[in-house]
Amino acid sequence: MSDADENREKIKILFERVLNGSDDDYLDELIAADYIEHNPVPGQEPGAEGVKNKLKDLRAAFPDIRFFPEETVAEGDLVAVRYHWEATHNGPFMGLAPTGKKVSVNGMDFYRFKNGKLAEHWDCADMLGLMVQLKVFRL
Questions:
Q1: pLDDT, tens digit only, all 139 positions of the chain
Q2: Can you tell me the distance from the alpha carbon of 64 to that of 85, in angstroms, rounded to the nearest whole number?
């Protein structure tokens, strides 16, 4: 199996075990000590602990969140995933009280590996679309 295939498999496991399964301990195994989060949430601490806390906050706001990878491309040390997530807004999120609204958010993530570990992450989620669905903004 090539490095690209191994990296793609690790991201598949990330979606299954962590994002959809709450097995955050896998992050300790996956994430490199010098991991860089290129789009951190305000106040996000570095490394696996920062990712765990970011996910904890997301799950508190959207307890039934489910991620659906739609397309994954891997080349060398880079894996790209186009996905969407669905959830119900049942907890505070970015200063917004729970609305009870069901939402669907599109996104794309890029993951760079180094020495078999996740070293960098970029994400681009449709936050404007989320805010429109939550009726924070009208278009």
A1: 899 999 999 999 999 999 999 899 999 999 999 999 999 998 999 999 999 999 999 999 999 999 999 999 999 999 999 999 999 999 999 999 999 999 999 999 999 999 999 999 999 999 999 999 998 888 7
A2: 10
The SS3 assignment for 103 reads strand
Confirm whether pTM is higher than 0.90.
Answer: yes
Could you tell me which residues come within 8 angstroms of residue 75 by beta carbon, excluding any fewer than 6 positions away? Answer: 4
Residue type, 29: E
User: CA–CA separation, 121 vs 38, rounded Å?
Assistant: 6
Identify which of 106, 63, 111, 55 has the alpha carbon closest to the alpha carbon of residue 87. Answer: 63
Q: Which tokens go with 124?
A: 């681009």
Instruction: Find, among 16, 28, 3, the residue nearest to 113 by Cα.
Output: 3
Number of H helices, E strands in the chain: 4, 5
Kindly provide the residue ranges of all beta strands, DSSP E only, lying in 45-99, ordered along the sequence. Answer: 66-75, 78-88
| Residue in the structure block whose two tokens are 């075990």 | 17
